[in-house]
Amino acid sequence: GDSVTQMEGPVTLSEEAFLTINCTYTATGYPSLFWYVQYPGEGLQLLLKATKADDKGSNKGFEATYRKETTSFHLEKGSVQVSDSAVYFCALIPIQAGSYQLTFGKGTKLSVIP
Amino acid sequence: NAGVTQTPKFRILKIGQSMTLQCAQDMNHNYMYWYRQDPGMGLKLIYYSVGAGITDKGEVPNGYNVSRSTTEDFPLRLELAAPSQTSVYFCASTAPGVEKLFFGSGTQLSVL
Lengths: 114, 112
Hints:
The complex is a heterodimer of chains A (114) and B (112).
Chain A: E1 3-6, E2 11-14, E3 19-21, E4 23-26, E5 32-38, E6 44-50, E7 56-59, E8 62-65, E9 75-77, E10 86-93, E11 103-104, E12 108-113
Parallel strand pairs in A: 2-12
Antiparallel strand pairs in A: 1-4, 3-9, 5-6, 5-10, 7-8, 8-9, 10-11, 10-12
Chain B: E1 4-7, E2 10-13, E3 19-25, E4 31-37, E5 43-51, E6 54-57, E7 64-66, E8 76-78, E9 87-94, E10 102-103, E11 107-111
Parallel strand pairs in B: 2-11
Antiparallel strand pairs in B: 1-3, 3-8, 4-5, 4-9, 5-6, 7-8, 9-10, 9-11
């Protein structure tokens, strides 16, 4: 079945550091790929997405590129802020899915210290 | 626009008790979902619905039941609570072509 593997956390960075959270997937065909973010005490919200190979999703300074050849969708940000502290989830929806069932990775907790 | 509303936010149950977690959305979304989130395990799909009167099992349905009598509401029922059901429960919704889930703020449930 489909699966998502993302790097183990927690990750602790100093403010203005560069962030990479690795995500790789296993799926039939070419799924749509997503990064969701969960701030403390809240539900998940969509951060960015990409629906086909070589697409780059971007939002709030975060970027991720859909790499078909490496089945990856790594999340990056050039300069993190304290307000980026959250749990980040990589997820996919199979291309043929009719009910938009997301498959999530286990999540990576990011803490940014001043 | 309230989005997805879950109640209650917190609940403590004794083993064997039953309860219903409520979920309502005001966006006229066809698709609704229940996930549970356990520490370090990501989110697992419990049940989902593609429209009123239609529900189906997800990855971890045992110990739960759902119903979808209206487009707006998708309650999750725990009949005989067990400690293994201690978790944070999230309801979500979307519509065809949106490809983005809208999540509620969650219900933290402890079974002691």
